Amino acid sequence: MMILVNTDYIEGKKFEMIGIAKGATVRARHLGTDIMGGLKNLVGGEITGYMEMLSEARAISTKRMVEDAEALGADAVINVRYTTSSLMQGAAEIMVYGTAVKFVE
Questions:
Q1: Which terminus of the chain, N or C, has fewer Cβ atoms within 10 Å?
Q2: b/e string for 3-38 if b means 16 or more Cβ within 10 A?
Q3: Count of other CB atoms within 10 angstroms of residue 95
Q4: Mean pLDDT of 23-27
Q5: Alpha-helical segments (H) within 1-105
């Protein structure tokens, strides 16, 4: 199992850096989600359709980053960071990246 941390160290481990590991996905909203989001915008409250979409997108991006790290021969990824950007109306990119490391004795 790949170790993922958002710190620049792992307690009790020595490692060498081997590269950047990254993963991304672009997700588009569903028309029904947009309609419900518009209604929620009027009355307030959490837009669960968007929350579910973003949660799924983070999971997919993280899985892709782990696969990238494994291809590099990494044991862990440190300094893990998430970012998002709007590519066009109704579509967003979720990207996750970090430093792939290999443990040394």
A1: C
A2: ebbeeeeeeeeebeeeeebbbbbebebeeebeeeee
A3: 19
A4: 92
A5: 31-43, 48-72
Listed in sequence order, the residues at least 6 apart from 52 whose beta carbon sits closer than 8 Å to its beta carbon are: none
Q: Are 58 and 24 in contact (CB under 8 A)?
A: no
At 28, list the tokens.
């588009």
Q: What's the CA gap between 105 and 95, in Å, rounded?
A: 32
Domains, in order of start, for the chain: 3-104 (3.30.110.70)
Q: Which residue has the tokens 């929620």?
A: 40
Beta strands 76-88 and 3-4 are parallel
Query: pLDDT by residue (tens digit) across 78-100?
Result: 999 999 887 766 677 899 999 99
Q: Which residues pair with 103 in a beta bridge?
A: 15
35, 78 contact by CB (below 8 A): no
DSSP single-letter state for residue 46: -
